[in-house]
Design a protein that fits this description.
Helix content: 55-70%
CATH class of the largest domain: Mainly Alpha
Strand order of the largest sheet: 6-7-8-3-9-10
Oligomer: single chain
CATH architecture of the largest domain: Up-down Bundle
Order of helices and strands: HHHHHHHHHHHHHEEEHEEHEHHHHEHEEE
Strand content: 5-15%
CATH topology of the largest domain: ABC transporter transmembrane region fold
CATH superfamily of the largest domain: ABC transporter type 1, transmembrane domain
Number of helices: 20
Length: about 575
């Protein structure tokens, strides 16, 4: 019930409208079925004995007879049949409307959860984001959101079945309340006996959620590093781990399927025993009229069927609900790590970027110690140093992704703490070490779907990056798909396209974070010459562990032991 309450709180209006439609559908069907007993009485008693049959009948028959007397109408067979048919039509219409609303809500729930996850992840702090496995986020976005929406669907069906059971019970109580109470107690007992199958299904669903999260996280990491594994013939190790996780997932799915089928299989014989016993008691022990028994059996069958369907929907819901709690916890954790933007002043960057006495460390491991460094506007500045020296950390501090534990960063004479970081980052073009190109057109890879960027802007960015010459020779130019036949390009060419992506929004600072480290010396030198030629358009800060970049840089710093030392050209 905690799951249903959580969803009702999250989507109160939509859920209440759906539940009301289902409730009225149940009432309409119950009203129509209430016509069955007087209908059978009329058929059995004959038209000349109708009034006597009604007076001697059940509370339901007397209530219906009084209702028609109040309206000044005679409850004939034809009239009762018409009311019964109309009631069923109304019920079907309301159920259809309710199911339509539920269908829309299922789609809305999945979409809302996905959008909430994306917003929470993208708004979280960088230190939180880098700790999250990419595969687990992908799993949450795709699998867990879908299963959460399915759980909502099963939950709404559960409530609908319970409502129907209540309506059927109310009608049955007016026919024979003692038999109905006994039947409801016995029916509830059957459901109670089978509850262990629901528990087994819930455990299987929980295992499935955990295994899918672990499996997809590991699979994503392996796919990103498959080349070196294959090159060393060690992919078998990763394959073995994935096989183990996949087999464990299979076991959880088997338990889930078995528990659902076992519930369905056990319900049938228990229900048969229940009705056989009930018929014997009603006809032989209590000696009730056949017409009453037939209607009562019909009503009790409806009650028990509704309760059984409710149990099945409950079982399906508990299988899927663990995905909802997992996804919700991820969203809440990301929201708690939301990046704070305290600065409000707009940056200009007209003269320099200055790092003064910057100190930073990860945990107990110090990395930067009172670092001083200045990047002049319109310059090509290089920062070199061995791997692990803290070069990328310096970049993260300049972009405001992380904050120094001591010291400050100035944009001209304005502290970065006072600056609107979103506005500052819009002035930055960033090229990472990993050359990330999507399997899409060159145009899309540069614009990333930003409709404000015109084709002329893309061509201009490609020219600045030294990429226009080879892109223009592709079969479809900027509309060629990267990686497809005719769209194959070298590592250096891929790097130039990512530089064009960084330049297309006319930034005032271009950061190259180890962007040339994977290139051969000749290609790296060509990229560095291109960067030097960009000084008329943008200030360039290039990070590298190789000294090739020093040949083209205006200013260079070497990062050692947490300090930045200015160095000259080789």
């Amino acid at each position: 019930m905690k799951f249903i309450i959580s969803f009702l709180k999250r989507y109160p209006l939509q859920s209440m409208l759906t539940l009301f439609a289902m409730l009225f559908a149940g009432i309409a069907e119950g009203f129509g079925m209430s016509m069955l007993l007087p209908l059978l009485s009329l058929s059995a008693a004959g038209a000349d004995k109708v009034e006597k049959a009604h007076k001697a009948g059940s509370a339901l028959e007397r209530a219906i007879s009084g209702f028609f007397s109040f309206l000044g109408m005679e409850p004939t067979i034809g009239l009762l049949l018409i009311i019964f048919v109309i009631s069923i039509i109304i019920k079907v219409t309301l159920v259809l409307l309710a199911n339509r609303k539920v269908g829309y809500m299922v789609a809305n729930v999945a979409t809302d959860l996905r959008l909430s996850l994306l917003q929470a992840i993208f708004n979280s702090s960088w230190s939180y984001y880098v700790r999250q496995p990419a595969g687990s986020i992908t799993n949450a976005f795709a699998t867990e959101a879908t299963r959460s929406a399915d759980a909502y669907l099963f939950g709404m069906r559960l409530i609908a079945m319970l409502m129907n059971a209540v309506v059927y019970t109310c009608v049955a109580l007016m026919v024979a309340w003692k038999a109905t109470v006994m039947a409801v107690i016995l029916g509830s007992g059957i459901l109670y006996v089978l509850r262990f199958m629901v528990k087994k299904a819930k455990m299987a669903g929980r295992d499935q959620t955990l295994l899918l999260k672990s499996l997809l996280s590991f699979l994503t990491d392996i796919l990103l590093s498959i080349k070196p594994l294959k090159a060393m013939a060690r992919e078998y190790a990763a394959e073995r781990i994935l096989q183990q996780k996949t087999l464990a997932l299979r076991s959880a799915l088997q338990k889930q399927v078995f528990s659902k089928e076992a519930l369905r299989a056990l319900q049938e014989p228990l229900t048969t025993i229940f009705f056989a016993t009930g018929l014997y008691i009603a006809l032989v022990v209590l000696d009730l009229p056949l017409s009453n028994v037939l209607v009562m059996v019909y009503m009790l069958a409806k009650i028990l069927k509704a309760l059984q369907r409710a149990q099945k929907e409950h079982q399906s819901m508990v299988i899927a609900e663990s995905a909802y709690w997992s996804l919700l916890s991820r969203i809440q954790a990301a929201e708690e790590q939301r990046e704070e933007f305290k600065g409000r002043r707009s940056p200009k960057f007209e003269h320099f970027i200055s790092l003064q006495g910057v100190t930073f460390g990860y945990g107990e491991r110090p990395l930067l110690h009172g670092l001083d460094m200045e990047i002049k506007k319109g310059s090509f500045t290089a920062l070199i140093g061995p791997s692990g020296a803290g070069k990328t950390t310096v970049v993260d501090i300049i972009t405001g992704l992380i904050h120094p534990q001591a010291g400050r960063v100035l944009i001209d004479d304005l502290s970065l703490d006072e600056i609107d970081l979103v506005q500052w980052r819009k002035k930055i073009g960033y090229v990472p070490q990993e050359t990330l190109l999507l399997h899409d057109t060159v145009f899309f890879n540069i614009t990333l779907g930003d409709e404000t960027i015109a084709e002329a802007d893309v061509i201009e960015a490609l020219k600045k990056a030294g990429a226009w010459e080879f892109v223009a020779q592709l079969p479809k130019g900027i509309h060629s798909v990267v990686g497809e036949r005719g769209g194959l390009i070298s590592g250096g060419q891929r790097q130039r396209i990512t530089i064009a992506r960084a330049l297309v929004k006319d930034p005032c600072l271009l950061i190259m974070d180890e962007a040339t480290s994977a290139l051969d010396p000749e290609t790296e030198l060509e990229i560095c010459r291109t960067l030097r030629g960009l000084r008329d358009y943008v200030t360039v800060l290039a990070i590298s562990h190789q000294e090739t970049i020093l040949k083209e840089a205006d200013t260079a710093f070497k990062l050692e032991h947490g300090m930045a030392r200015k160095v000259g050209r080789p």
